[in-house]
Design brief:
7 helices; globular; about 270 residues; 14 strands; four-stranded mixed β-sheet; six-stranded mixed β-sheet
Length: about 270
């Protein structure tokens, strides 16, 4: 997608893309991070984002799921919290429009960048505290959002909890996307022997940001089986073959072979 700052226009785009995907036979649909609104500032976000309960955009998403009889996974939207911050929340709907699962993005980007301003995502968002899996048809889905993809332990935890498919909706910047997008997503698939489905924002947005695009579906052997080439909005479809998950995990049993270990003690300077 290429979400802007007008929620209704973004929901119109989601509805059109969902219809296209369902028309191609998709039974599970994933949209990108910040599907509903990609705000310019915290102030603008506060003027648009509402609470979770009774959220009209989620009610509309539930209707899309019912109309097409699909699992619709809204990659994320900002949900207003009582403390003035927001949750970056992923919401999975069943084919009858019920909420099957929600997940709040755990890892927040707080960094001091040389020569640039400090970036504190935690000043706007409150991080989630639990890993989430959910049944989707014949497979179990593990939920993550964007920056989470840099933290292998989350995906390891999801896989050990039964996830065979990992959802990674994102709004990746262009420079980091060019350098890291494909390799990180393929690595998470290989490490866990899982499918990774990554729906991405792409192009120049109304808020002045530019995102990388290149939505991907990666199989458990780390091969890209579908990709949006470039940053234009579009739909990709692939079949989840669960025997490939079982085969990858049997051939390289990383999850079974993992062991706990103690960290090396820090030695005083000068001790050999």
């Amino acid at each position: 997608m290429r979400s802007g700052i007008e929620p209704e226009a973004n929901m119109d785009a989601l509805e059109a893309l969902a219809e296209e995907a369902a028309g191609q036979g998709a039974r599970y649909l994933l949209s990108p991070e910040v599907t509903v609104v990609f705000a310019e500032s915290r102030e603008q976000l506060a003027s648009i984002a509402g609470p979770y309960e009774g959220n009209p955009h989620l009610e509309r998403a539930a209707g899309i799921a019912r109309r097409h009889g699909v699992h619709l996974h809204v990659g994320s939207l900002a949900v207003a919290l009582p403390d003035g911050r927001f949750a970056n929340r992923s919401v999975l709907f069943s084919p009858d429009g019920r909420v099957e699962a929600t997940y709040d993005k755990i890892h927040l980007f707080d960094a001091t960048l040389a020569g640039l301003r400090d970036y504190r995502e935690s000043a706007t968002y409150r991080g989630g505290e639990r890993a989430v899996t959910a049944p989707v048809g014949d497979f179990t889905l593990g939920l993550a959002i964007c920056y989470d993809m840099r933290f292998p332990r989350l995906f390891n935890t999801l896989a050990k909890s039964g996830a065979q498919v990992m959802a990674v909706p994102a709004a990746f910047t262009v420079p980091t996307g060019e350098a890291h997008w494909h390799v990180l997503l393929r690595a998470r698939a290989i490490e866990t022997g899982s499918y990774v489905i990554a729906a991405a924002q792409g192009g120049h947005h109304a808020n002045g940001r530019a995102t990388y695009g290149h939505s991907l579906i990666v199989n458990p052997w780390g091969r890209i089986v579908a990709e949006v080439e470039g940053d234009a909005p579009g739909v990709i479809v692939a079949e989840v073959e669960l025997e490939k998950v079982a085969d990858a995990r049997a051939r390289i049993p990383v999850l079974a072979n993992e062991r706990d270990f103690a960290p090396d003690p820090v030695l005083p300077v000068g001790v050999i």
